[in-house]
Write a structure and sequence with these properties.
heterodimer; A: alpha+beta; five-stranded mixed β-sheet; about 30% helix; about 15% strand; globular; B: alpha+beta; six-stranded mixed β-sheet; 29 strands
Chain lengths: ~160, ~725
């Protein structure tokens, strides 16, 4: 079946297989490989993207059900060479090691800050609980989200 | 000696042509004085690279520095820290240094990135390479100006004559020339007191591409004409294929099924088609025969099933028994004696990027070449593995390791690389294979399970006087105590493992420290001494004493009276050049039995610190990873089937598991810089075990200690799960 989706502001009409997930369409059909596969069951958060303003695990979303959706991936955060405040905060805090979880963490953080622009450390930890950083950089990620909040990321695009 | 580096013969000549002019400095790993290498003389003639090279560095005519090393970046930060060391010795900005890593055609042979060797070995080698290059550049400037090189200085990518204020950029010095130099092994390295590029918290090189998602991990790569692959897996470990019907799969357009014995793979133009083809295969299997221990009885099985020799996962120490003094007599004479057993479970690495490979065969004048991109910690070993699997000579196979989504010791092997290569060879098109999380759980290898028996005595003065330590299957890394015990017998007994096992961050050091330090805490209690004071009394190594004192001071050991359900513990150790001490506070909910580590302080000494912020990141990350193995990670299995091959069932540390962490760095400017990716993980579990005892009165001697919390009513006084 053919679906129409808007990804990072661009419209795409994609022929999808009923078995395909949104993650596979983003990565394999649209070449947006910043969004990662980690577990395929929505338990690690590596595949987190925004549908509208909500963070979702794209590996659990059948591509067909995304028809008409407005999606933002990690590739859609940078504008005119300027990092999104959350990306900048992750860089400033060096909140990663291997960074395979980083795109998902950043997207989940963007959604978190939109819903709660000034979260406490506990609220950040709770809000990001479904995202795994196997390298264990969680304290730095919390610091990065707080830094981004201080920089006004909750009011920033998208 | 035959070069084991990928840059052999024709490809090495191509490589030199590619580099063009400029200064090439090679590091020869053998003793130059004993046997001068072909390139040992400084020469302006065509470069010759000696056969046994450890690393090389090239400075082009624009002053750009490229360093070639077989090490790989998995998140541990060596792309940054090694570049800092080069920048330091070469006196160039860090931004002008680029590392080419883990490419068997371009980089010199390397055993692999493991064992915390990159900093002490490769770091030291690269500093010598950088210092030799700087000396050579100064010599070139001196020749140019007809002055004594002793009066010239090198800084900011230039050689300057302070007397005349004239200067030349490195690129100007090498412009239009091809210069080769071999490393002077006796070259003077810059003392830490004078470091400006090394010793600072330089941010992760390439960090911007990581936060934007632009970096291409192996699993992100694609090439034109590429097919997607899936592999048929057995229903249980060791099962053999008895029949296979491929007709339904073959009927799907674009699908090719490849079978070679029990190896069966499908390729298709899209990932969903490959998945469908896999699902359409009709296979029957015969289960393996033989003993079938399960995760419930694994400890007994390992104890009574010896293996003739050590195997994978048993690296990092000697398998030979160690004996000193008269341990039998000392045990008999000791006024305080304690005998206990400890167990550790198999655990999985769970690298967030699962195994992945992209294999491509190209037809070239000299014959076919197979290129495989894959995330492995041992690119050269995987190259050989792939070459053997596809029947090609080693020098026609090139393995390239893009910076990878972590490994923790779990990616020493080339399963996905071999599988993708076999399929690419069969179908004649590039093939990409990305393992699923479930495949990663079922078919990768595990940290060995083990049993450790400890029998120890303490004399009337509070000194540990006797120590026997029998480790079954866990491994010999850090098996000997850091305490100078006069009478000891330490033995590693490898076992037959029902599950595939291998390396894991810090190897058996975590298990051995868990058993040893748990035992030491229990001995301290037996002789009614504070566990920090007892350790300090028994430690003679000043650096180990220092980390214990610093951790205790920062923690505020033992602290004020704690609320009910809280407890504190301490542990320390030494491994791979790193001294570590951890103090931890835990809380146990007396209602639910939930366990939480409230705070942890780790003091760590790995010599002269190359990158303080990167080091903090490693130490803190190791502590967090250690929480899983300490409290809840364990592979369940029965009859050759992994019972919890999903993140829903196999719990890894998440945000809510993380304590307040305080890292105390102990910088030793006059000591060699050692690795830090492993040792910081090993003191957490025994510190938490001691804290849980204080909180609950229960001694937990099995890792993981509290997969379902601690049920106090049932467990009270029992001693272990």
């Amino acid at each position: 079946m053919r679906i129409d989706i808007e990804v990072n502001g661009s419209r795409h009409s994609v022929d999808v297989d009923p078995s395909q997930t949104l993650l596979e369409v983003l990565r394999d059909e649209l070449g947006l490989t910043g969004t990662k596969y980690g577990c395929g069951e929505g338990r690690c958060g590596a595949c987190t993207v925004l549908v509208g303003s909500h963070a979702v695990a794209s590996c659990t979303i059948p591509a067909q059900s995304a028809n008409g959706a407005k999606i933002t991936t990690i590739e859609g955060l940078e504008h005119d060479g300027h990092l999104h405040p959350v990306q900048q905060a992750f860089l400033d805090e060096q909140a990663f090691q291997c960074a395979y979880c980083t795109p998902g963490m950043v997207m989940a953080s963007v959604a978190l800050l939109r819903a709660n622009p000034q979260p406490s450390a506990e609220e950040i930890a709770r809000g990001l609980e479904t995202n795994i950083c196997r390298c264990g950089t969680y304290p730095r990620i919390i610091a990065a989200v707080r830094r981004a909040a201080a920089a006004g990321a909750g009011e920033a695009r998208p | 000696m035959i070069a084991r580096g990928g840059t052999e013969g024709a490809s090495r000549r191509e490589f030199l042509k590619m580099l063009g002019g400029g200064l090439l400095v090679v590091l020869v790993t053998r003793d130059l004085l004993a046997e001068p290498a072909p390139g040992a003389r400084l020469t302006d003639a065509a470069p010759q690279i000696p056969e046994d090279v450890g690393a090389w560095l090239h400075i082009d005519e624009n002053g750009a520095v490229t360093v070639f090393t077989g090490k790989v970046e998995f998140g541990q930060g060596i792309r940054t820290s090694l570049a800092q060391e080069i920048a330091e010795e070469l006196r160039v900005p860090l931004s002008s240094v680029r590392l080419v890593m883990g490419d068997t055609m371009l980089t010199p042979f390397d055993m692999g990135t493991f064992g915390s060797r990159s900093t002490p070995q490769m770091g030291t080698q690269l500093r010598k390479v950088g210092a030799t290059a700087r000396e050579r550049l100064v010599a070139l400037a001196a020749e140019h100006w007809h002055v004594d090189p002793g009066g010239l200085t090198a800084a900011g990518g230039r050689v300057t004559d302070p007397r005349t204020h004239r200067s030349l950029r490195y690129g100007e010095l090498t412009a239009g020339r091809t210069i080769t130099a071999t490393v002077n092994d006796a070259v003077a390295l810059t003392p830490k007191a004078h470091w400006t590029a090394a010793g600072t918290s330089a941010p992760h090189v390439g960090g911007r591409d990581l936060v934007t998602g632009r970096h291409q991990y192996t699993s992100d790569m694609r090439v034109p004409d590429m097919l997607y692959a899936k592999i048929l897996r057995a229903p249980s470990i060791g099962a053999t294929l008895t029949s296979l019907d491929t007709s339904a799969a073959q009927a799907i357009p674009g699908v090719v099924v490849t079978r070679d014995g029990d190896f069966v793979g499908v390729t298709a133009p899209s990932a969903p088609t490959a998945a469908k083809a896999l699902g359409a295969l009709r296979a029957t299997w015969a289960p393996a025969s033989g003993p079938e221990p399960s995760s419930r009885d694994i400890a007994d099985y390992l104890r009574r099933t010896p293996a003739p020799e050590a195997g994978p996962g048993h690296e990092g120490g000697s398998a030979e028994p160690f004996e000193r003094g008269d341990v039998t007599a000392a045990l008999a004479a000791a006024p305080h004696r304690l005998t206990q057993s400890y167990t550790v479970a198999y655990i999985a690495h769970v690298p967030l990027e699962p195994r992945a490979a992209l294999a491509q065969i190209t037809h070239e004048a000299g014959g076919d070449r197979l290129t495989v991109w894959t995330g492995t910690q041992r690119p050269f070993a995987v190259r050989d593995e792939v070459a053997q699997a596809v029947g090609m000579p080693n020098d026609r196979v090139r393995v390239i390791v893009p910076d990878t989504g972590s490994g923790y010791g779990g990616k020493h092997t080339g399963e996905a690389a071999v599988e993708a290569a076999r399929l690419a060879q069969k179908v004649g098109r590039p093939v990409k294979l990305v393992w699923t999380r479930e495949e990663e759980f079922r078919w990768a290898y595990f940290r060995p399970a083990g049993v450790i028996d400890v029998d120890a005595g303490v004399d009337a003065n509070g000194i540990i006087s006797a120590w026997t330590f029998d480790n079954y299957n866990s491994g010999p890394a850090a098996i000997r105590p850091p305490y100078p015990i006069a009478n000891q017998r330490v033995v590693f007994h490898p076992s037959v493992s029902p599950l595939r096992q291998g390396s894991y961050r810090a190897l058996a050091a975590t298990a051995n420290h868990f058993a040893r330090e748990s035992h030491v805490s229990e001995l301290a209690r037996m002789v009614q001494m504070d566990p920090v004071a007892f350790r300090l009394k028994n430690i003679d190594d000043p650096r180990l004493r220092d980390v214990v004192q610093k951790a205790a001071n920062t923690f505020g050991w033992p602290g004020p009276n704690r609320q009910a359900g809280h407890g504190v513990g301490v542990a320390c150790g030494f491994e791979k050049g790193g001294y570590v001490a951890t103090c931890a506070e835990v809380s146990v909910d007396h209602g639910s039995g939930d366990v939480h580590i409230v705070r942890a302080v780790t003091a760590f000494d790995c010599g002269a610190i190359v990158n303080p912020d990167g080091l903090r990141n490693q130490i803190s990350g190791a502590l967090v990873q250690g929480i899983g193995g300490a409290l809840f990670e364990a592979i369940e299995f029965d009859h050759g089937v992994i019972g919890n091959p999903h993140l829903a069932d196999y719990r890894v540390p998440r945000f809510s598991d993380v304590p307040a962490i305080d890292v105390v760095l102990v910088d030793r400017p006059d000591e060699p810089s050692m690795g830090a990716g492993e040792a910081p993980i090993m003191a957490l579990a025994p510190a938490v075990a001691a804290a849980l005892f204080e909180a609950t009165g229960v001694r937990l001697r099995a890792l993981p200690m509290a997969p379902s919390g601690i049920k106090l009513a049932a467990a009270s006084g029992s001693g272990a799960r």
